[in-house]
User: Fold this.
Amino acid sequence: MLRNERNFGSPRDRVDGRAKVTGAAQYAAEFNAPDLLHGYVVSSTIAKGRITSIDTQKALDVPGVLKVFTHDNRPATAWFSSSYQDEVAPPGTPFRPLYDEQIYYSGQPIALVVAESFDVARYAASLVEATYEAGAHETDLKLARAAAYVPPKKRQGMKPPASKGDAMAAYAKAPLRIANDYSIANEHHNPMEPHASTVIFEAGGKLTIHDKIQGVMNTQSYVSGVFGLPASDIHVVSPFVGGGFGSGLRPQYQLFLAVMAALDLKRSVRVEMTRDQMFTFTHRPETINTVLLGADKTGRLSALRHQAVAVTSRFEDYQEVVVNWSGILYDAENKQFDYRIAKVDTYTPGDMRAPGAPLGTFAIESAMDELAYAGNIDPLELRLRNYSTRDETTNKEFTSKELRACFQLGAEKFGWSRRSPAPRSMREGRELIGWGMASGCWEAQFSKTSAKAVLTSDGRLEVGTATADIGTGTYTILTQIGADALGLDMEQVTAKLADTTLPKSPVEGGSWTAASAGTAVQMACEALKKTLLQEAQKIEGSPLADAKYEDVVFANGRIAMADDAGRSLDLSDVVRHSGQSEIEEQATAQPDSKVQAQYAAYTHSAVFVEVRVDEQLGLVRIPRIVNAVAAGRIINPKTARSQVTGGTVWGIGMALHEESLTDHNLGRFMNHNLAEYHVPANADIYDIDVIFVPEEDDKVSPIGVKGLGEIGIVATPAAIANAIFHATGKRIRELPITIDKVLREAA
Amino acid sequence: MPAIRQHLRFILNGEDVSLSDVAPDATLLDFLRIKRSLKGTKEGCAEGDCGACTVLVGRLGRDGLVYESVNACIRFVGSLDATHVVTVEHLRGANGALHPVQQAMVDCHGSQCGFCTPGFVMSLYALWMRHARPSLAAIEEALQGNLCRCTGYEAIIRAAQAIASYGEAGNDPLVVERAAITERLRVWRDGARIDCGGRLIVPASVDDLAAIFAENPKATLVAGSTDVGLWVTKYMRPIEPAVFIGALDEMKRVETHDGVLRIGAGVTYSDARKILGEKIPELGKLIARIGGEQVRNMGTLGGNIANGSPIGDMPPPLIALDARVLLRKGSERRELPLEDFFLAYGKQDRQPGEFVEAIHVPLPAPGTRLAVHKVTKRRDEDITATLGAFAFRLDTENRVAAIRIACGGMAGTPKRALGVEQALLGQRWCEDAVLAAMERYADDFTPLSDMRASAEYRMLAARNLLMRVYLESVSGKAPVTIARDVAA
Assistant:
């Protein structure tokens, strides 16, 4: 385990800051190639049915148009639908763009117009005319849920926990009872960068692809599987990704279309999505939870039943963890869990920041809040009375769980003890004031990841792995870890990411990257140091000739005896004497299966919120939030705080703003732009205080890190809804809580 | 007939640009990214919502060379004659260092994914040029039009507050170049009409515009392009021939004659905010909640009226103030009450070839109380769900001597609440009268449900606004804007 490092644990500036503030950072649509062609996507206007004819002649007549690809004329691709499976595909048949005349959802790509310039492609696309035979579609979960089913094939790790006892019987006998539905709207990721792929066609038919993707290996294997190219002919390089939040986990259709066109026309092609088209692929699934709680008069749970039903597409069974969170946070003698999905005519939903967690947590933590009022118990006290000390859902001990400290430090910082318990009891001016809280957790995952560490003859270190930095700060923390390992300044270290020529890594997601890639880089650096010592000992008259690895230190660009700094060698001299231009080592980090069999690992948070509600107009604002997080060791407080702040703001979005509204008549998302799909703006954000609770954990990962990308959002929506109840006496169980709902609900 | 020039010219960062073959619907963003490979300026939404494409446009005005932030995605190249366009690539500090704005953003961790970052940098740069040490309110206002999906904004605000500690304005490229740029732009303002193949026309004067439009009544008039820009980027509607009127100085005049404020139709929201805000503070506060700074720097009062939107924010308060609109066709002019200009949804009393030349706003009589409330789902950068504008006067016996109420988002046009007014006129200004009048909203309006709010919400909120205005008027406090007031 690392200790007393110079950079690990320190608030370092992000190493890619300069590239970003100068506009020099290049995103997928910004790589150029000679004679680059531009593709523009034509989208289906119906939600279900088939294309009866598609007239492309007018588009083809526009000077500068090379080809219009449709299902009628597309080049052959892989025969089996399984070849379209990507690394994170759920069970089912992946969507195959331009495969045939069938329409599965509104906005489905039905043609790609390829032209010499972007404006020509865009204009010509407007001339493509499709006629359809429309089928009867269904996009409303409230109706589709009648046909909900337990997914026959589980997505990995997505099984609801086993039931125990008789939840209904215990509920019937319980003195305190809560039973309600809690629903969350469809949401779209809307990273600031729209999805895009630039496919550069090189001599000999090799491809270099710049894709908006959270894992270049996934792009490579997808293109290889679909188009039958050897992986060695597909070089994917995506150094900067303008936000992902899950939308870039799976290769999206613009990649397929760009590669198809490039291979067919033997030219380089770029396909960029418009903001509207960002609403024509993955999204967070609309979900309805039903929670039933039974407790004794002290609030101790005797019955816990958590059911959920969520939308999926006609062609894939997307699944996420929604109901398990209740069982991880709380134990009850009798419990029952059920998770179902219902098919609707949209694209397949997908992982979106903390997939499933804020949905299930909104339900259980709202229900717990209701139970607190029913039993006249302080909401925080109620949670302490039901605090789980082991993960009953998997029957494992926690690697660590400092949620109690999160409660304590968060409550102190917030001033929770000064809360007046009754709803509608706090007011200032025309605003009602409410204080609410909630807790949450997210699985601290660790995924097999390889990395390299290279020392060059000028004494610089390069560390690399194929994973992405979607803005989280991966470049920066890997630079910190590499610098500490070799005793160099961060300026002497370069981190390389998002390139298929780098050692293999899974997609960047699930908050596992810091722990996994961080450990892999750490291990590669350790291997490199051993090799460097061996090389140093080969030098004639080496002052380190008889040194053991344990006896040397790497500092200030030198290897030296720990007890005799005079006996040392310059690292660059070691490389030069080795006869090589550089010395490289690789290592692969993977989870310890024995530890995993015995322990469950989670990041925890306690969120405290103050809201102010203008009841005459239904306006809600959130002057302050305290989010106390226990996430193991923090590599970089600056990037870490930014992750949790950003995640908390996503929680504000889910609570108050974000909602992809469906016109069920058309089967289409209506607010497909940033004017009507509201993400929080600066004016919605006041004071957000992030506390990192000290948490030592030597089991979760070799570097003691748990990951932070998801935890910020998890408990925030529930805490906000609970605060709104405290302010107004209105219990709103449908997110987002818009001005309409605040005004409509009766207190 | 003025002299005719067949090309337009502007300065892009440090380089002179002269274009004769330019499409009327060519946007500045496409020009930068596609034609000039200046990719620091990003496209996030193509409709002026997200600010990722923020650049500065410098223009000679009354106060000399002024740089303003704009959304390049909906700004047409045709509007750029005699301007200086500045992109993030032009920013630099002394001796290869980062510019203070950029360095502060790095040090304060103002970016994560970085895609919105150049836009934030440019918005902060525009602010920094005006105020080296801006207040928090000024910072928040400068950033209203920039969305960030990663950082949660806080770090960006801290960066903005820290800029002053990173160096002085003296080394700034735009300060260093100022005299030379000013001189070049002055020379370029030659008073000619620009005509690029009859498709793109920039009139030399308002008279020239009147002649051109009378002759080509089907031409698209483009003022700030915050609406027309979307016709192009969202709907690919053809706009040629397009007549760009945003730079006509005569249309930017504001004068007061006999208690009437005469506002040129080309006055931007930003300019109006300063001028109107001084005379009628409630309007200044309202304008601060229209779009973001980039949109306010482009969009015009005349455009907000001429497009006839039922959710335009300026018409209701202007109707409440009994404003009149001055229309012109050729050399003919006519004036009519603004409320009569809006005939039905999408239909205005405007003849082919006729355009809005000015708006005449009577300054409120002494004792007039004015309240304007814009209600939206999201505090900033949102389209109105409902808007209520109230102008009224009480006599010495506390009776309502005069009252005009106009609403937005409640009907197919901006519309007066005549029934409500009637119920109050001559009545004592008391809670009972207000409660009775609130019932009359149902006679005046049948609002629709849409994505922004339900019909029930609109009705209830509109009525509650009247009660709010009453309560505020009797509490002795000035009407205050909803939630946080960034202008405070």
Remarks:
- The domain at 31-136+192-243+248-279 of chain A is CATH 3.90.1170.50 (Aldehyde Oxidoreductase; domain 3).
- Residues 433 and 612 of chain A are 5 Å apart (CA to CA).
- The mean pLDDT of chain A is 96.
- The longest strand of chain A covers residues 431-443.
